[in-house]
Amino acid sequence: MQSRLSVTRAQILAFRRRAGGLEERVPMSSKSLRRAAWAGLQDSMPRAALLSLHARVDGVVSTTLDDPTLAQLWGPRYNTYVVAKRDFALFSLGRHPEAGKGRVRAESMAERMHAHLDGKRMTDRELGRALGVGAGLRYAATTGTIAIRWEGARAPIVWTVDAADLDPAEACRGLARRYLNIFGPTTAEAFARWAGISRQSAAKAFGSLQAALLPVRSPLGDAWLLVDDEQAMRATETRDAPARLLPSGDAYFLLYGAERDLLLPRADQRDQLWTSRVWPGALLVDGEIRGIWRRAHHAVRIETWRRLSRQTRDAVETEAGSLPLPGIDRVIEVIWDT
Fold it and tell me: Residue 45 has what pLDDT?
């Protein structure tokens, strides 16, 4: 493809922070919750989705995930996700295999689950034991008929819902467009890896969007951007928040391969953020990731990669003190590792 636009690392990351709602918090509303969950909120770590919402929306409290406009499902790569209820079909049917063994496996598992549940709700452990399967239950999620509720400390509750009247190919197209809007400029291969779908399905989705795509030359090579996002990509003004504590799996750093090099050019810092086990959170300061953080009960331990000013440290401590942590009735203690 012949690129019409060349973009820099700074432009890409500023665009992604802007598209991902990380410049400034917006007032609480159903619209702002949906926008904060535009790329889905991974919740595989207990209450990570709540903290991702907190980084983007003002007034988030420990019960915000109970908002009726939100829903949970086994989303991209079969991880636990919180999404806007209106987008449930995109994050489920949008990943449904086109044909072959994958589709048969998903639909047969959904049929078994529907037959056993028969309108009831039960934990995935109970259901798995009854059906003689384990994590394989999650394959049914791509049919758009399986919803879950996970509180973080107990087994998820599972029940069945009616599938949306939406063709899976159209849902995949919508999910690809959503991915481009948050992670652009990007490629079909990157979309396939993020969503956990075949490269063939991802390529078809990108191909169906061809008229809406702009070829871009990025530091990582040739990629695509939505034409509608060109002006936002070219924007020079930024309003980066002084500090944000992004939880493990937050969309801003839910990246793979060379995309990680773009976000963090230093290999030693990448190794600390994307570990082989549970990822820590990311400390975002003035538009750059400057360290990692972890929480244990009421203590937040922060490891920085460079010296921060007193003003910035105060902003980080204020941010930590505002985290909506369920079951914590003590002042949050910030422990600095520099």
Answer: 85
